[in-house]
Amino acid sequence: MPQPAITGHGVFTPPEVITNDELVVAFNAYAERWNAEHAAEIAAGTAEPKGPSSSEFIVNASGIEQRFVMDKDGVLDPARMYPRLPARPDEAPGIMAEMGLDAAQKALAMAGRTGADVDLVICAASNHERAYPAIAIEIQQLLGAGGFAFDMNVACSSATFGIQAASDMIRAGSAKAALVICPEICSGHLEWRDRDCHFIFGDVATAVLIEPAEAAQGPRFDIVSTRCATQFSNNIRNNNGFLRRTHDQMEDRRDMQFMQNGRKVFKEVLPLVSAHIAAHLQAEGWGAEDLKRLWLHQANKTMNDFIGKKVLGRTPDPGEQPNILQDYANTSSAGSIIAFSLHSGDMAAGDKGVICSFGAGYSVGSVLVERQ
Ligand code: COA
User: Fold this and answer.
1) Of 297, 346, 301, 285, the residue nearest 319 (C-alpha)
2) In 3D, which of 78, 98, 72, 82 has the Cα closest to residue 17?
3) Which of 22, 107, 131, 167 could pair with 8 in a Cys bridge, judged by C-beta atoms 3.0 to 4.6 Å apart?
4) What is the model's pLDDT at position 271?
C-alpha cells in the first residue's frame, strides 16, 4: 500500500486584525448601551446587567492577543456585533471557496503541483456557508481538479479527521493527490455579545496536500499513523440548523450561535486528549522522547501547556509545542494546521511530531508524522 505523505501546506490569513483592546472597547460600548436600554428591567431585578470585558482577563484566561477576521467593522459596531459578509450571486465564488482556494494554491505551490494533479478535495470545517452543493466541489472546479470532492464537519477536529480520511484513501488507491482544506469563518458563529466567549475565535483557511510518498517532489512529512475518537457531549454546542424554521425559531436566539461550558470543556477534554495521544504513541512504538514537536489545537494556552507537559512528562522546551493562538485566536479545525504550517520548516529528516486537534463532539484526532 502507498505510504501517504504531506507534500504541501498553506495558510490564508484574512487582511483585518482585531486586537483585544479594540474588541473590549466595542463590547463595553455595546454592554453600556444594552444596560441603558434595559435599565427598568435591571432596576426591577428581572434582568442582569451586562458586565464589562477586559483585555487583561482575555489574555490571562486564554493567551489570545488578537484575531484575524473577514470583516472587522460589523464586529466592532456596538449597534451590530457581527460581521458584514454580503451574500454573493450564485455565479460568483463563495467566500469559503475563495479562502480555501488561496490556502490550497499555497499548498500546491509548495508541492510543485497544480490543481489538475488533484483528484480529491475535502472541505473539512466547523461550518459550511450553505447546505449544498458542497463547498469542496466548488473548490474542485475553481482549481481545475479532477476526481471527486466532499464536505465534512467534525467541528474543531475536522482537519485531522479529514487527514485520516484522505490518507486512508491514498493507502487504498482511491485517490492519488488529496487536498484537505479548512476554511473557518468562526466570526460568523461566534456570539460577540457574550463576554464569556466574545474573544475566543478568529477566521482563517488552511490546506494540506497528501500524496503517496514516492510521488513527492520535495521534502515531505510521512503520515505514519492517524487515530480519531469521539464521545458525545453537549458542552460545546450550536443549535442552528436546517430545521430551525420548522421549530418556529427564526428569532435572535443565543443558542443559535456557539455556546460552551468552558470550565467543563477544560476539565473533561484535557484528560481525554492526553490519554489519546499517549495511547496512540504507544500503539506505534513511539516514546515521548521521540517527539520533536507537538502541533496542538489552538483554543487555550493553559490547556496546551497542560497537554504538552502531560505528553512529554516535562515542561516542553521553547519551540517544541508552538502556539499560534496569541495571533490567530481559536480558528477551530485550522488551528493545529496553522501551527504545523508555520512551525515545521526547520525540521530535519527523521524528526517526528504529532498534530492533534480536539473540540466539540467531543472529538480528538491525532496524526503522527515523520519528516523525510
Ligand atoms: N472579561 C472579564 N471577565 C470575564 C470575561 C471577560 N471577557 N468573561 C468572563 N469573565 C468573568 C466570568 O463572569 C467569571 O466571573 P465570576 O467568577 O464572577 O462568575 C470569571 O471571569 C471567570 O470566568 P470563567 O468563564 O470561569 O473563566 P475561565 O478561566 O474558565 O476561562 C475560557 C474561560 C473560555 C477561556 C476557558 O474556560 C477555556 O478556554 N475553556 C476551554 C475552551 C475550549 O477549548 N473550547 C473549545 C472551543 S472549540
Assistant:
1) 346
2) 72
3) 107
4) 94
Q: How do residues 326-364 score in pLDDT, each as one tens digit? A: 999 999 999 999 999 999 999 999 999 999 999 999 999
pTM above 0.85, yes or no: yes
CB count in 10 Å sphere of residue 364: 28
Report CA(298)–ligand 1 centroid distance (Å).
16
Dihedrals phi, psi of 7, to nearest 5 degrees = -105, -15
Per-residue pLDDT averaged across 197-206, rounded? 98
Surface-to-core class of residue 317, CB atoms within 10 Å of its CB (0-12 exposed, 13-18 middle, 19+ buried):
exposed
- Residue 187 near residue 203, CB atoms below 8 Å: yes
Ranges assigned E (strand) in the chain: 4-12, 16-19, 66-69, 120-124, 148-152, 178-185, 203-212, 221-230, 236-237, 259-260, 291-296, 352-359, 363-371
Q: How confident is the model at residue 189 (pLDDT cuts 50, 70, 90)?
A: very high
Ligand 1 pocket mutation pick from 263, 298, 304, 330 by most atoms within 8 angstroms of CB: 263
Among candidate residues 369, 12, 13, 358, the one with its CA nearest the CA of residue 210: 369
Asked whether 324 and 341 are in contact (CB, 8 A), the reply is no
Residues with CB under 6 A from ligand 1: 53-54, 57-58, 61-62, 156, 195-196, 199, 236, 260, 262-263, 265-266, 299-300, 303, 330, 359-360
206: amino acid identity, one letter = T
C-alpha to C-alpha distance for 48 and 11, rounded to whole angstroms: 41
Cell readout for 308 is: 504538552
56-91 in b/e form (b: 16+ CB < 10 A) is eebeeebbbbbbbbbbbebbbbbeebbbebeeeeee
Residue 230: beta bridge partners? 363
pLDDT at 318 over 90: no
Q: What's the angle, vertex CA 330, arms to CA 228 and CA 208, rounded to 5?
A: 55
> Has residue 37 got a pLDDT over 90?
yes
Taking the C-alpha atoms of residue 174 and residue 164, their distance in angstroms, rounded to an integer, is 14
Give yes or no: 186 in active site: no
In the reported structure, the alpha carbon of residue 262 is separated from the centroid of ligand 1 by a whole-number distance in angstroms of 6
Compute the average pLDDT of residues 100-112: 98
